[in-house]
Amino acid sequence: MADLYLTHEKAVQMLKDIAQKGIEAFGPVQKDGSHLIEKITESSPIDFNYFITNNSIKEALFPRYEKILSYKINQEGVEVEDVAVDKSIVIMGGHPCDAASIPLMEKLFGWDFKDKFFLQRRENTTIITLACEEADKDCFCTSLGYSPRGEIGSDILLERVSDQGWKLKLLTDKGKEFAKTYESYFQSSLDIDKQYPKLSDQDVPVQFDPKVVKKWIDTHFEDPLWEEIASNCWSCAACTYVCPTCHCFDITDDATMWSGIRTKNWDACTLPYFTLHASQHNPREQHFQRYRQRINHKYSIYVNLFNAISCTGCGRCSRACGAKVNILEAIKMIASAAGGK
Amino acid sequence: MEQLQKKVQELLNNKEVDIVIGYTAISETETKPIFVKKPEDASKLVFNAYCYNNLATYLTRKDIKAFNKIGIVAKGCDIRAIINLITENQFKREKVLIIGMSCEGVTDPRNTDKKSIKCDVCKVHNPHIADIVMGEKVAETIAMKEKIHHADLEEFNKKTREEKWQFWKEQFSKCIRCYACRQACPMCYCNRCIVDLNTPQWIDTRSNPKGAFSWNLVRAYHLSGRCIDCGECERVCPVNIPLMLLNRTLQEEVQRSFDFEAGYDLEASPPLTVFEKDDEENFIR
Amino acid sequence: MQDNWEPKIIAFVCNWCTYAGADLAGTSRFKYAPNVRVIKTPCSGRIDPMFIVHTLEKGADGVMISGCHPNDCHYNEGNFNARRKYIVMRALLTQLGVDMERITISWCSASEGIKFANLVNEVTEKIRKLGPYKDFVQLNQSER
Known about the structure:
Chain B is 31% helix and 14% strand. Chain B is α/β, with parallel strands linked by helices.
């Protein structure tokens, strides 16, 4: 198949046009000094000039809040109305660490209970990923087996060839179909800047062995190192919510006497009352217990259940943390305590 | 810096304090909080223009409160927080050993070439209440009696009512309800925050515009007369919502209506717990 | 806008003064608009300014708050505390771009039946001219 290229201008137009068609388009916007992945509208300030977005692409498939049913109570009883999850979705602007999170979340949402809200959306989604051009001290995708040019989870990989735009790499049938449907936005040639840096795996050196880390976690639940690792943590949910793989949720009702809607919203194990029992006992009362749980879940429990680590090394949690808790530093402290490597 | 490290080492050696909360360097331009319990760890302490965190927020954390005597490295705005917590009976003055740091100002966390705008209106570059004072005296540019006007508000106040509503609607639609603002804030220490109560559910917990609006409104309201302008909430917000616009509005209102600014006077009563017979009521029919 | 739209106004009143005043308006057979739904609280000091927000979120077009005159509070100081809270909340709501024309705070004593009736009529007319208040209701999205 002939080479395909895409310029920034055409990408902006393409996203906006897709959004007009009743398809949910998600792309990177620049707002108040940072870049976020948001649902695109006609007026979205789409911009591709960034290292990494503050948030991940997960909210395209796992919304911050979503109605799962509505109900009415009348003389006859309760009438429940289901919610259709049938819109097509196009996501553009994440990096390989974002795309790799989708198969990870599929394991959980497709486990013992098939979560149609995630799975149906996933089926109707095309993911266009931007290969990384930069990495910083908080990136560690390679330590988990991922890559700044990684293709896992993506339908199309965009590799930058100049200041103007990217070359397309069509990875799946969905990707090929997308390229065909939107061929008017692509072009067969682009002025290539041969000097343009290509980030490779060597630029993100491996910093630990996840197997060593898991072994330590599994055998050191009461170790005082956890308190040291989490000493600064003030138990907000910033890390959890910007994380591409964190997936906990809460169900709430917004109702009056005779009608209401049930919503599924994001929740976080780091928040103080996440494990509060009805008896008022809280098994994870202290901040470090909750941080320990987060690392434990990602690096050990998820592996036990699904043979995969629920982390893609994007480093967003470290960047978002106002208390400066750094997950890479934490994992390296564990690896060091476990005896090196 | 060395003076600070030596002093803390001494305090810990003599067991004058059980723990010292301070800052340590991550890089030349980044610091993070550190909890020093061993005298030899005192050498990790630093103090510079990148010490953003308001360490007073840790004084109400359960594990820290359990200590008998807590040393804390604090700049003027942090000391205001400590004073305010004492006026709200969260702990006694004797529980903290305030190591006050003379401070010329911190940089703007989003643009380290500039100074933070909060430092332009600071009245306490030199610690106003402290057990130990460190650092060279800095010239105070604003008198205690002077009424503060914040630079970001002056610009914002020019908007019309509709513009303001649209502005906040857009800003709050970004809010992901992570509560980083709440947790970073030294004044948010309620055992059970109003959003954590669900019988009944006072505040919608969803991160939709209605929920985000209610949350940010209620937090600003519950901070009225208590916010000491450290700006941490705005710094830690993962989606860059200009929260200080609301908090500063209430700071100025409380200053105007009740002649009060939080965190300067150990004997002060929180303004919403008292009243004057002649409080303003020109808005009441 | 529907042709038969009627302003929906919620009034939070204190039991000892304004509620009695409203009662007096009724027993005196003063005519006043039926658009105001009265919610009785023991004291204006109980009226958390967040009630204004909750009420507007649920679809009210206007909110009234009323209590005893200063020095007349049945609990001595409730209204003094309330006054400070309202001062602060008004500054906050104004800064958020809320239409403050729709929020009316008053002191209305048990003997001021006619004041209550007049106030209700005046506020209802004002809200009728302003139209329905959609701003808050539009925030309540359940789909992104």
